[in-house]
Amino acid sequence: MKTRAKLEVMSIKKISLALTTAVILALVTTPHVNAHTDGFWLGKWPNTPRTLKWNYLGGHKYLGNVWQGAANWNDSISTITLSQVTSGSFHIEVYDATLPNETYWAQAWTDTSPQAASYSYGRIKYNESTMDQTSDFTRTKVATHEFGHIFGLSHVPASYGNNAIMKTGVQAYNDVQYHDWQDFAAKY
Amino acid sequence: MKIKALHLLTIILTAVVACLIILLLGVTGQRSATVQLEKKSDNKSYEKTLLGHADYPSFPSLASLSKEAEAIFVGVHNGETVTEDGKIIENEGVKPFKEAPKTSYTFTVTEVLKGSLHEQDTVKLTREDGIQDGIRYILEGVPHIEKNDVFMIFAIYGTDSAYHALAGNTAIARLENAESYLIPEGVGFTRSEKEVITADDVRQSISSE
User: Which of A130, A165, B1, B169 has the most CB atoms around its CB within 10 Å?
Assistant: First the structure.
């Protein structure tokens, strides 16, 4: 009887130890899921290429801002480089549109979906109707923000206490912030 | 010695199996959340979903949002939607592509808080989303609209005779219960601002301008 009780205690100990180990293992091995994805798995760029070429086609009205936006990321990260090209193949297409009825400055689209987590292209559209109404400083903020989306970063809520370029709207800064770097580093 | 090794092996095996079960449950949970989101959409079929992101002027408070809006109204979506194919972009030297489609959602106005609309008016709220060529396009932070959903809408009136929600289409607050509307996170309210608002809150914010 005593032996049976001893065995039961040992089994409980074993199960507890195994479950604790399992939870720790599961936590360590679960893939990073961005906290602001609305249930979607945002994708990322594969290991190659790590130089992403962007081409600003058409009128390239905000070229200076877009160039600075790319430079802001290049100054902050080392695993991926954004490089401007004007011919040949590229990964990111940048263009302008006049959309007087739209309330956004810019949109970014990538070829991700719940079914495809590896990006092969990105597109950034600037809305001249709203971009023209904002300051040059904010245009660079928008350009930096959009490249963040191209990397697979989503929005950071305005209610979040620290700075982040991935917050929407006008901010007092227009370059990559520590929180953005952290989100990027968690992905790449 | 052998018994100890056997015990250790049992613990390791149990841990690995339990870990696999936990991971599997976690992954399945995430997938089912996505699938559920997809099922909620229109009856049109689609093979995959693309998620777009925008940057836009956001609003730290209800007062600033109300001030910017040309129209603020409460409406119920009557289920009528019209989706137009996206514009074809033909930049020189590269393969043309189709942008996200535009979808108009028809609403019956039930309460007017700002602007020239009247109760029972039928209005269209247009935005860049919808299904096109087997792909569903949605925008980050923009609430999904279903038939009979009630929203408080903060919008501008477009040259296309449709309304367009402010803050990159996020400024539509869903009716949560009786009289309370939930302001989407994407609108940009600060921590000190209420996320759940009422029509009275809006009236007060307009009168304090």
Answer: A165
